[in-house]
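Archive transcription. Copying these from loose printouts into the bound notebook so they stop getting lost. Printout 1 of 2:
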Amino acid sequence: MTVGTPASGTLPDTQVKAMFDRIARVYDRMNSLMTAGMHHRWRERSADLARVGPGSNALDVATGTGDLAIELARRGAEVTGSDFAPAMLEIARRKAPGLAFEEGDALNLAHPDNSFDAATVGFGARNFADLDRGLAEMTRVTRPGGRVVVLEITTPQKPPLSWFFRAWFDHAVPALGRLVGDPDAYSYLPRSVRRFPGPEELAGRMAASGLADVHWILTAGGIIAIHAGTKPGS
């Protein structure tokens, strides 16, 4: 990510980077605990929507510890994972030594135009200091006819799920953060989800980045949204 003035409601990039470096050692365990292990299935569905296979290549932006990059590679694609937190990348490299992981800026991707058959981001777009710029960069590096996929938490609007969501994210998740010794990081998580655009707005912003045929899937009762769009051209 680019260091600069953060968007309203976000933390400066340097603080977000330091936070993810701090929680790298517990990140995978906390993901599994918070989602009852379902985050792997959501990444599988995201990889399916990327439509990659043998002979194709993909860029996973904000790859973290590499789980979505690994899912893409399981489909036969050549995958590069990019993240700005070195401690997260260190874990990703240990989990998948055959994949390429690089330290990178989501708002200024170090790849030429039209480099990849797909660009994905799983649970990282809400940490972009400038969401529109991050989406534009993902679109830029994707080849015409290629796919851009965004997997993210979204806020359900209807009870009773909306009541459960608020109770879980506003109270249970910060409490889990205190147990693992980083309450600030897991208080940031619900704030980052609340300020992130809902599915319809995110689809519009993906379209504004230059993507066509943008659609989304809601799963987990409406808590998870997976968006996909295609870069026009052939």
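Printout 2 of 2:
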Amino acid sequence: MARLPSNASAPAPASDPEPDGSIESLYPFLYSGTTDVSAVLEQVRQSTVAKAQEILALRRQVRDADGARLMACARQMAGRFASGGRLLAFGNGGSATDAQQLATVFLYPGGIARPLPALSLASDAAVLTALSNDIGVDVVFARQIAAFGTKADIAVGLSTSGNSDNLLRAFDEASRRGMLTIGIAGYTGGKMAELDSIDHLFIAPSTSVHRIQEAQTTMYNVLWELCQTALGASDADQVPQ
């Protein structure tokens, strides 16, 4: 996944962003020209604090705007898992890495948390390269959903721009199969915000890819925690009195 400067103000790109080479705006202290170590360290401190404040503010914004919807989505996810469903996660570039992490959080949560069946569709290099070479990159996720997806399953797609064609096709295919569809995007949601095939869309409203992906990480970890809570409550309801 390419990176944009944290102070970028350009509109959402046609697809996930490409690098613009503006490293200086990300790390100005490397180009300050000063040889004063103390001054450089202070600039590093200020830069770190500013970035931390940005992501904290964005996370609070998402919490205030989408807290209730995240809870409702997690309850629906818990219902799918309770019915034997699986989670299928997908994304491109850095979002592919997030999809892998998302699947890992559900499948290998650690501690006493319940493992839940999850699969990252971006993890199989043989499948990805075969589909990309023989048919086209636009179908790399839709074809896997067609092969693996059932109406009990959950499809979660991640994109910073919200404009990736292979995600849009995957959501359409998942919706046709009756899957619960969840989109996690940035900027203003891009084309994902226009789809009727996404049941729940959560947006990190920022123009910084760094802050978007950090907020998206928080979103899917919150969904996991709320889903575990909902499943725990369901189990308690089924315990004989």
